[in-house]
Amino acid sequence: MKIKKLIVHGFKSFVDRTTLNFPAGTSGVIGPNGCGKSNIVDAIRWVLGEQNARHLRGKLMEDVIFNGSDARKPLGMAEVVLTFSNDQGQAPASFANFTEIEVARRLYRSGESEYYINKVPSRLRDIVDLFADTGIGTRAYSIIEQGQVGWLINAKPEERRAIFEEAAGISKFKHKKEAALRRLEAAKENLTRVNDIISEVKRQLNSLNRQAKKAERYKALKEELTAADLKLAAMEYRRLAAEISETTKKLNAIKDNEAALGAELSAKDAMTEDVRSKRSALEAQYRSIKDAIYELEKEIQNAERANELARLRISEIKRTEERVSRDIEELDCARQNALIEQEALQKALTEIAALIARDAARLTEVSARLEALTNAHKAKEEERRTKAADILKNASRISEIRHAIQAQIKDEEYSRIKETKAITELDALSRTVASKEEPLSRLKQELASTLSRKENIEAEVAGLRGSLDGLEKTVAGGERALNALKDDFSKSQARLTTLEEMEKNFESLASGPKAMMQNAPPPDGFRLMGLLADAIETNRGFEKAVEAALGDKLQYILVESHNEGMEAIEYLKLTGAGRVSFAPVRETRQLSAPVTVPAGIGFDGAKELITEVRVRDEFRNVVNSLLGDVLVAEDLSGAIALWRQWGANGVYKTVVTPDGDVIAANGIITGGWGAGEGLLQKKTEIKNIRASCAGIEGRTLSAEAELNSSRQSLAAAKSLLEEKKERLHAAEIESLNIDAGLKTLTDEALRLTNLKTSAQTEIRDAAARIAECHSKKASLSVERDALEKEVTLLEDGMNAVTKAISVIDNQKDALLATVTEIKVALASSGISEGAIKRQISEKTAFMEESTVKTAVKKAEMEAGLDESAAKAIEAAENKTRAEELLHQVEAIKIDEIKLSETLALISTDMAGMENSAKELKARHSEMQELKGELSIELKENELSIANLKDRITEKYGRDIAQYSAEADGAGQEVRFAEGAEHHNVELDIETVESQTRELREKIIALGEVSLSALEEYNDLDKRHQFLVDQQTDLNKSVESLMNAITRINRTSREKFMIAFDEINAKFKDTFPRFFRGGKAEVRLAEEVDVLDAGIEIVAQPPGKKLQNITLLSGGEKALTATALIFAIFLTKPSPFCILDEVDAPLDDANIDRFNMFVKDMSQLSQFILITHNKKTMEMTDSLYGVTMEEPGVSKMLSVSF
To answer: Which CATH number fits domain 1-142+1172-1201: 3.40.50.2300, 3.40.50.300, 1.10.340.30, 2.40.50.140?
Structure first.
């Protein structure tokens, strides 16, 4: 999937629609700073799904839209379209059949964002999945900026894992694991909630079971009473009551369905994730098959090409054999002709040799006579040259002496001037040297002071750096501790909210107390003082003991007096809300004296239970009446022994244990503990959680204060360190300036001293030179006069010798003419002789050469025949190999088709699952909306009930709560007690009232009966079973998610270690190639899970010891990071790689190595380089130039090579 084309419109500085076509190989993007080169990288990163504006060098995502310039208005949209070639089918299976894949992204100023794949609207997730584990992505190593090179070196070992994980191809597994963990957490939360609800439902079932048996009889009597008491109004009341009941059921059902849908959604998500994992595995297998087919087809092509080359070579060898045969025949014929010509030339050579001998004898005679004259001539000429030389020598010497005398005169004058000047300069230099001594001393003192101050600052900087490291660790530890506290607070707060919600809704109460507490009494009616459980506080560890002793009594409702209790019971009877016990706080019988453990009775830890209970004074009588005669022992065996000892005195007491075991006064033992927690335990838990939350909040505030203090200290330390660095830099600059000034002054002083010495030397030399000039002038004048006399005598002798030489020259000229004539004849003969000899030699050489060529041609023919036979065999083998490979390709293509069909089926299943999940989510939303509507409807019906009560009270003088909600309209027949006759509804009022009183007495005789107990029991039992099923489904979902996470972890570890080892091996190879030696490796942190271990980089450049990379120089770090990046790229090459000024920190030598690596790897991947380096530009196959002729607007120019 290489980049084929990039279209940018309205993105940052690219205002106009700009198209860049990137060929395979290497492409360069160049241009001056600020012209918009890096905007191309930002555009590619943005279209691949980047969501962080800071990574695009902006503050808000809208910053990528062109914001206008002096000459142009802002645009309303930014668009980037990136086209990939998919010739080799490397895309995911759903896109494998496309030769091109186009990804587009648009952003409007309104904030709307659009994504497209092949012009089809898509989600950001689709684009991320498209490039998962391909090395392509916003954080992948396919896009590397200069800052990332430094980040790779300076990052923490844990942060450095990201690029290794991308190379290992486990990024998508990591995302899947995170999604699975989120679903697992949601499933666990749902499971906890369902467990709490099941616990409460079980407790309510036990309570309802005792009341359900009376329900049928009570319903029959209530129906008769209601039919007699109410007519049309009763029908309305029944309708409203039924609607309230139905609404309540619907609300409960909706809540249950909501929990069920949550569980089903979790299960669906787990199944979908499992199918998606299988599809990913099949897609990887599909790509492997495609790669295998591609490799086999390439081998077939190679075999066919080799076969064709062998056939062509055989034909060529045949043509060569024919040509060589013709050449041998031509060589034989030429050799015969050369032999005939050689014999004729040998005869001509004999004749010319005789002529040359005759002319040579004559030349010898004339040459002897000429030699005698020449010797005489030479003697006279030598005599003349001697005399002339002597004359010239003396004349030259005379001239030299004259010039020497003049030079001595001038030299004497110059020496006098030089002496005067040197004396003046010496005086000036002495004054200047004296003036330099004081500034030189002052600068030396300043330099010593500055260097001392610099050393002090360096020591302070080193100390600050140590403190800074400690503060950074403190801040990091504080952040971890604060996050842990916040997590604890969130968990505690969630649990507290659940418990408070259950307490607020009285979820733990039986139906009667629950209905009584939820439905407030009339304003003018009785007053409820709360539950007994709310009036009691226990010491820590005795909650179960008190709950075991009191049992359902904890649900007693406290009232002022018996009268209040009677009114409340009457209210319950009329409303049919259930059965409740009321405790009148002012009229409750108190024990005459609290029970105490007699001396000698009891064991360690035995005490009165009332001593572990705290209660307000107004409720103390009630609590004492219930717990005053209850004892507590350490365990059940102790309780039984205590009960027996009391019994021995004729008094049997109830004894409980802190674990909730009970031995009643009658000896019955109750033990064990049900699921869930009791009222007191929940109240204690709420109290403890509140205290815990308060403590956590306090610790959080303290931790935040400490963290802020540490951060402030860290910031102050950093600020102080920067200040010290600036002072250190200033001191360094100051020391350098002072040192430079000191050096200048020292050099100047040394120069002046040298000048003084030179001036003194010149004065001495000038005086000596003047004296020397006087002496030389006198001696030169004497020598000049003697030489002039000697020259006159030599000139006379030379004239006589010149006349004798003239006579000899005439005789010599005549003989020279004769010699010349003879030599011309000899030269002509010699030329002819040489020509004939050369021809004979050439013919001999030709014949020898033709003989050798003939042998070579014959050997060439024999070698061609051997090669032709070998090529024939090779052609046959290649043909057989191609046929075998073709059969393999056909077999693999069958597997490819089957796997493609399987992938299609899995994709269809996944689509079905996703649609099903969408439907479930829609149903979940509908449930929530319906729950709100039903809650409003319930409130409206309750208000109608209240209005109906007022209306019936005014009409009949009685409360509607006394009536049953079931009645028919006028004309309905009413069924009375068993055996009674049916009467018409038109019976007079007195008869109806009498029958009503009779029915009421029968109902009262039944005692406490919950009207809806049976129905509530059945409904609650169904709900309990439904919740148990949901619990099972959630447990399965949790197990499935745990298995999926285990599989993901196992696969991730395997893939990561394989990639890590391969990257390490490649790194060990690339590092010495960049450094021309040395060694390096990457290491995993020890004693840490592979999936969490940090990655250390250790390097040893040539000539250094093995050390951590942070200790290397800046250049070594950059080169090491580059070597590691290339090692990762060699392990899993991305289809393309964008390098944004990565070569900037490299010198020329390393640039050449860098370019060599890029050129080699461009055979595997496409490279796009943003660079300023000329050598990198020369290496690229094509160049794009970015210009900004118009301010704020980027333009493109392209050059291909």
So the answer is: 3.40.50.300
